[in-house]
Amino acid sequence: MKTLQHKHIIKWFELASLTLRENKDYLTKLDSEIGDADHGFNMERGFNKVHNKLEEFSLNTDLGAIFKNMGMTLISSIGGASGPLYGTFFLQFGMAIVTKTELSLQDFVTAFEKGVNGVKLRGRASVGDKTMIDVLAPVADRLKESLSENNTFEKVFSDIVKSAEKSMKSTVPLIAKKGRASYLGARSVGHQDAGATSSYLILKSLKEAIEE
User: Fold this and answer.
1) Number of domains in the chain
2) What is the model's pLDDT at position 81?
3) Average of per-residue pLDDT across 164-172
4) pTM
5) 10 Å Cβ neighbour count for 183?
């Protein structure tokens, strides 16, 4: 597959909503160990709002507008830091693909990088801080590398999910430097970051969306 189409984006959002609902308790458990114990609930609530908009999204062929709508939906419905961060990612992603009805790999890579940079700026986080950036930034790097490899979306998305899973697990030995977890200092070591985990789950849903 050489282009990512409207139907794939809609399927991605649908599967992400279902996956986060299914993993609500798991994400809450992770967050309860070093955070506010609300990440699972917040993500499930926000993406349920997205799920309720799937019919509306299906009628709009402007992918940039869909992503921006999604970003605003998450900002308005997810509590804590996750809403502004995930919302910023999808808003910035959408701004990079205004009026596009399908995406080339170059389009996707550019938009993804813009989204990640938006999260970095808003959250003031870097790789190694034990946050969602520990997953998103390496994925952005892997995506840029893929541009020179002439791979299909199927191969590229398979690769980034492997990268995301590895990066998610790499947060376990880190000391948290952002958010409530940072208050724990060395006691945050040994726990997987909930935000990194939800990022992995969202990317895994993207891979599955183009396989159906």
Assistant:
1) 1
2) 84
3) 98
4) 0.96
5) 11
